[in-house]
């Protein structure tokens, strides 16, 4: 209890101030001689967070690439620390965590999460009641090697510098067997005609 004794000369008046810091929300009683008064201390409002603008950039990536998940958090309550629930669901696993923020009343902050794509499929990011989808595609396979260049002289199996009839017929058989193309068999036939 705080107390002050004040002495005054006749006719004198003086304003007396007490500073009181309330540490809990309740009604405090104040008494000065026979006068009584009171004041009410109220608790500050709890922080209350609202999330908005959940987005993922880019919305599609390939395996082991990273995407960035963003959302804004606004404190519509009193100043203080609170949390939002942040979840990422991928094909084989759902990971969930609390993300804590300390914000003044009315303060907005943007949260950024770098997220590496560890499996192919669809993903869902959820923050409180908001959700956003993104996807991981398989890496692009390397292009197939170019077909080996075709040498019609490869049918000159006896190596005499001439495509003989038997050698030409072998090429025709290979064409009908799907081993060489029409254009390739035509090259062999053209050499046979020269022979
Ligand atoms: Ca030959």
Q: What does this protein look like?
A:
With 195 residues, this protein is mostly beta strands. Among the domains are: 49-137, Immunoglobulin-like, CATH 2.60.40.10; 152-194, no CATH class. Helices cover 13% and strands 41% of the residues. The protein has 2 helices and 10 strands. The strands form 3 sheets. A 5-stranded mixed β-sheet has the order 4-10-9-6-7, with no helix packed on it. The chain has a 3-stranded antiparallel β-sheet with strand order 3-5-8, with no helix packed on it. The longest helix has 13 residues, at 182-194. The protein starts with 26 loop residues before the first strand and ends with a helix. The relative contact order is 0.13. The mean pLDDT is 91. Bound molecules: calcium ion. Residues 156, 158, 160, 162-164, 167 line the site of calcium ion. Calcium ion binds next to loops.
Short description:
With 195 residues, the chain is mainly beta.
Helix-strand blueprint:
Layout: E1 27-32, E2 35-40, E3 49-57, E4 60-62, E5 66-75, E6 80-90, E7 93-103, E8 108-116, E9 121-127, E10 130-137, H1 165-176, H2 182-194
Parallel strand pairs: 4-10
Antiparallel strand pairs: 1-2, 3-5, 5-8, 6-7, 6-9, 9-10
Helix pairs in contact: 1-2
The structure holds calcium ion (CA).
